[in-house]
Amino acid sequence: MEKGKAPRDLRRLLRVPAGKRIDLSTYGTRATPAGPKNKQAGRAATARMGKRLADLQERLWAAATTGDRRRLLLVLQGMDTSGKGGTVKHVVGLFNPAGCRVMGFKAPTPEEREHHFLWRVEKELPRPGEIGAFDRSHYEDVLVARVRALAPPDEIERRYEEINRFEQFLADDRVTVIKCFLHISYEEQRHRLLRRLDRPDKRWKFSPGDIDDRALWPAYQEAYEIALHRCTAPHAPWYVIPADRKWYRDWAVARLLLEHLQALDPQYPEPDYDVAESRERLLGE
Amino acid sequence: MEKGKAPRDLRRLLRVPAGKRIDLSTYGTRATPAGPKNKQAGRAATARMGKRLADLQERLWAAATTGDRRRLLLVLQGMDTSGKGGTVKHVVGLFNPAGCRVMGFKAPTPEEREHHFLWRVEKELPRPGEIGAFDRSHYEDVLVARVRALAPPDEIERRYEEINRFEQFLADDRVTVIKCFLHISYEEQRHRLLRRLDRPDKRWKFSPGDIDDRALWPAYQEAYEIALHRCTAPHAPWYVIPADRKWYRDWAVARLLLEHLQALDPQYPEPDYDVAESRERLLGE
Known about the structure:
Two copies of one chain form a homodimer. The first copy, chain A, has 285 residues and is of the alpha/beta class.
């Protein structure tokens, strides 16, 4: 592959391999395994993708008006400060907001806790033609739930299979699920948390609990390794995104969305009316 | 006012005056009553507003995390092709999609028809901290419903007052409602409909029914005049946006949003934790 050139298929390069558990410590958080090699080139490449992404989104949306049920769901997971919100802002922000459905999942409310853990997720799924984005997701129920023992171990065990069945159901219903683990280093998180403390306009994003969670870093990494291993599938793959460099993270997620949309190849529907006749009517008024 | 300079308050300039019915035919559709005077300057001015809009949105969002219930609701109405969708794309697209809630209202579904006409609208209201946008709205129930007699006259009559009470309720609940009528001319609509027919990627947006609606143009203009007259209020004003020039329409709506957000003046919340102590903990790990 030519240096600095985008690969023909970033999906293949970043996808978690099926069959064996990965070791996240062997995945570089500052790596730029394909595509642009510096911030300036990265930001420019992402911006250039904007028009193509919005064009493909409009085709997907248009196709839905005549019954095409296809849509995209971007699932963003990662440690605090890994850039889930930034990815929504910079990548989902490239699309037309009319066709986007963004949901940030927080700790479940009392009402949500009364239901099955997938209940609140199903309500926020993208409708046909839409681009959905989850900032955190149903995976929290096998991540924080596992690390902090918020549910009995056998319940957590069952959830992996429930997630797999749920995502198979989504695939059957024509939802393309793209799951991205934003992979940052322990040091980078410290740097970003300090930045939140140093900037008055960032302090509201910080909570002292974020530091408590850092003490559980190895347990979280393990929980991610298990979730990525047990819940990656051809119809709903996990991708590991090197996320210490924000510009690379944005480029990689945008590129994955682009490749998936290009593979869907949505088409504008053919008119179900007589174009020439309508033109004459308009001109003859 | 200096030529080409933005006015100190576009709200005052474009707001429908209370108390008397307006005559839409006296409102210019190609006018540029304030602000930029050509496309290049207009597009640049709108882009420049993007950063300030997104910054104010983040403050609004941050304030909501500590209980501030304020939010914005942009209501877009106008004839077919008046640019409601384009305004969402180009103006709402300036915000962070994580904090936007966009809804396009179509002809009511059978389920929606079983409910009060405001039922489907209430479900889609912006949550605290959000920027909501309606592409069509509850006003359809006094516009198309009036022109096509989809409800008995006394029912339509009651709806104006119900809308006023509803919007008063929204104001009480800290929703800033900004209602924009995108005003285009009969000739401009013909031009835009022809364009939809001429471009294969636009044909899906066209329906022969759009031409039937053109025959009812005067009735629609009258229905708008009545709705704008009866449902403009200090807490939920109507604005008439000259919309034949897309760049001016986008600039004017962006500018109205900016003025309203600046008036709200949302502030980042003060941290409820000890910043210095957290910093020490992070550095001492």
